[in-house]
Amino acid sequence: xxxxxxxxxxxxxxxxxxxxxxxxxxxxxxxxxxxxxxxxxxxxxxxxxxxxxxxxxxxxxxxxxxxxxxxxxxxxxxxxxxxxxxxxxxxxxxxxxx
Length: 98
What we know:
Structural class: alpha/beta
Largest sheet: 5 strands, mixed
């Protein structure tokens, strides 16, 4: 399952996702950074800096989306994406096909 979290700036998207990844391990796959727990994958870079989550990902992150989707399907976990990097028709179309 893939979940896309969207909302206005400053409403708490990143804070909520950080609660899901406490005590998780961070990984990188292509341009995608993500944290993985036993049940979830949260895509974004969470490093306690001013801007975290998908804001820390490259603007070109979509070029590696296929790699990320293959990995998500392989491990059979819920994947959570948030923010502008993924609020586009390319993301919606690609993730719907997996």
